[in-house]
Write a structure and sequence with these properties.
Chain lengths: 242, 336
């Protein structure tokens, strides 16, 4: 089966700071992949490269077999790649409903009542329905993170990139989030998830990729990765969470 | 059980619509109840409101903070003179033609100045307007640096008697502001308008959701420039005389317009309307005091920017959560 997303030899640096160093990996259709790595390892930069927010210095990105390296961020979203931002970027002057409606009309290309109905479903799914009429500028940080996911889901992506959405949640909120992401995944959406809350990540993903200094240092079945000495040394040694 | 419903109109917007329609009828009849000076003043108010609405769409929504829209005001004015004097067109046709020509020349200008960001973009637009001013000052057929007047024969095409001409000029201004307000409203209410509002709030998130930012901004720039040129034509149809310094004045056609939009509330449809009323109320009460008038304008601008950065309408909207133009979507639950 051909990969949904294929990243080959992707490199990007800002002066001396290397955020991607010949990174290569593939994401199969319907997969759920987790990305681990210490702060500053280049995880969010990798998402920026995949979504087109950053241009790579070298390398190639393919989506559904097509080279998308030269396509704009907007074009990639229309092809089916949507992401949530680690630092939320809500449309502050617009209501929660309108925020998600942008994803439905622009990203998913839905019109009129079909778009509205889809947005209502997404808000119900992500638990934002009670806030539907509130301006996004007045939301708390946790609500903003949930809105990030809702907006991305409204765009009906084939590939959903989630960037640290579980941090700071209570146990119950985290369980609800895991259930939501599992539902999205079961619906056929491929997921790549950057997360420091490892137990949440492990509850969803079937494969882990570990990144450090812009370089992929491990990739494989989650249990095996978590047990490998290299990962324990580089990543888990600095994280008391596990 | 039925699910939640989505609506857009609110009680405030319905009341505003009725009041707006009544106001429109009263204003359309103004030539029969208002004096000559009042008619002129109201015509000027309509044209300023149009400029403010257009600048607000461009700067407040598309993030294109131009200080060079006087380029298009002056261009539209000069096209009125050129197309009537040399082309033999009726003034109204010439004004519309000026709009079309402005749309055409705004495309190459946009590809040039869109390479600039933020403050550089603002300065770039100003430089462009100065180029326009210097270029038109070179055209001797249009009076060069000292300008020219609209020939009597052309003026008479608007109306044979002076009173008739003033009424027609007034109705054209009223028609223009109505068209501009409707056009901006219909656009903002559409899918493209939702996308533009998203760009206003976060460009990075908007492009991530599939919005082509460059193209959207280009569309807004071309349409506002064309309509600004039409308004420019109407302004100089009222004045009947044009010169490069008057046509491309940064004070008259940009500084006052920015004041209006910022005071009223940038990035809202209601803001420019309130701003225009405040600006003309200040101008009419303080005009006799000379330079003090400009100092008071500056003071008001500073106070509003410090105390109410979202403008007067922003203050009202945050306090009462109302909207006169139904742009928002509201979700209603069955139990409501």
């Amino acid at each position: 089966m051909s990969a949904l997303l294929s990243v080959s030899d992707l490199s990007k640096s800002f002066g001396a700071v290397v955020v991607a160093d010949q990174t290569s990996f593939e994401v199969a259709p319907g997969a759920a992949i987790g990305i681990l790595g210490p702060n500053g390892a280049g995880k969010t930069s990798l998402f920026n490269l995949i979504t087109g927010a950053l241009r790579p210095d070298a390398g190639r990105i393919e989506f559904q077999g097509t080279d998308i390296t030269a396509i704009s961020a907007a074009g990639r979203c229309k092809l089916g790649i949507a992401r949530s931002f680690q630092v939320p970027h809500p449309f502050e002057g617009m209501t929660v409903f309108e925020n998600a409606l942008v994803g439905a009309t622009e990203g998913a290309g839905l019109r009129g009542h079909a778009a509205e109905a889809h947005v209502l479903d997404v808000l119900e799914d992500t638990g934002l329905m009670p806030k539907a009429n509130q301006r996004a500028g007045g939301l708390t940080l946790l609500e903003r993170k949930r809105l990030e996911m809702a907006r991305a889901l409204a765009a009906k992506p084939r590939l959903l990139l989630l960037d640290e959405i579980a941090g700071g949640l209570t146990e119950a909120e985290c369980s609800a989030l895991i259930a939501t992401i599992r539902r999205v995944h079961a619906g056929g959406t491929t997921i790549v998830w950057i997360e420091h809350v490892v137990h949440a990540l492990l509850a969803v993903v079937e494969k882990l990729i570990v990144i450090d200094f812009g370089r992929k240092i491990a990739e494989g079945e989650p249990r095996a990765i978590m047990d490998s000495a290299e990962v324990k040394e580089i990543y888990l040694g600095v994280d008391p969470d596990v | 059980m039925t699910g939640p419903r989505v609506t857009r109109a609110t009680r405030a917007s319905r009341i505003a619509m009725v009041l707006g329609a009544v106001t429109l009828i009263v204003l359309a009849a103004a030539p029969w109840w208002a004096g000559r000076a009042d008619l002129r003043l109201m015509g000027e108010i309509f044209l300023y409101l149009s400029l403010a609405c257009l600048w607000n769409l461009m700067a407040g929504y598309a993030g294109l903070v131009s200080v060079g829209q006087q380029a298009f005001v002056g261009f539209g004015g000069y096209m009125l003179f050129a197309l009537t004097i040399f082309g033999g067109l009726h003034p109204v046709v010439a004004i519309a033609g000026g709009g079309v020509l402005a749309a055409l020349i705004s495309v190459p200008i946009a590809t040039l100045i869109f390479r600039l960001k933020g403050a550089y973009f603002a300065i770039g637009t100003w430089v462009m307007a100065e180029v326009f001013r210097l270029a038109f000052a070179q055209i001797q057929a249009l009076g060069g640096g000292s300008g020219t007047s609209l020939p009597v024969a052309i003026v008479k095409e608007i109306g044979r008697k002076k009173a008739m001409r003033e009424s027609v000029s007034y109705w054209l201004a009223l028609g223009a502001v109505l068209c501009v307000l409707l056009a901006v409203y219909v656009f903002l209410r559409s899918r493209r308008g939702l996308a533009l509002t998203a760009i206003r709030d976060s460009e990075v998130a908007a492009s991530g959701l599939g919005i082509d930012i460059w193209r959207t901004k280009l569309e807004v720039y071309v349409v506002t420039s064309a309509l600004t040129a039409v308004i420019g034509g109407l302004i100089f149809l009222q004045k009947l005389r044009i010169s490069p310094d008057a046509a491309f004045s940064v004070n008259d056609w940009t500084a006052f317009v920015i004041f209006i939009v910022v005071i009223g509330g940038i990035g809202t449809l209601e803001g420019p309307i309130i701003g225009t009323l405040i600006f003309f109320a200040l101008r009419e009460t303080l005009a006799d005091f000379g330079t003090i008038y400009l100092m008071v304008l500056g003071l008001v601008a500073i106070v509003v920017m410090l105390k109410a950065p979202k403008g007067v309408w922003g203050l009202i909207r945050d306090r009462f959560d109302i909207e006169l133009f139904p742009l928002s979507y509201r979700v209603h639950h069955p139990k409501d």
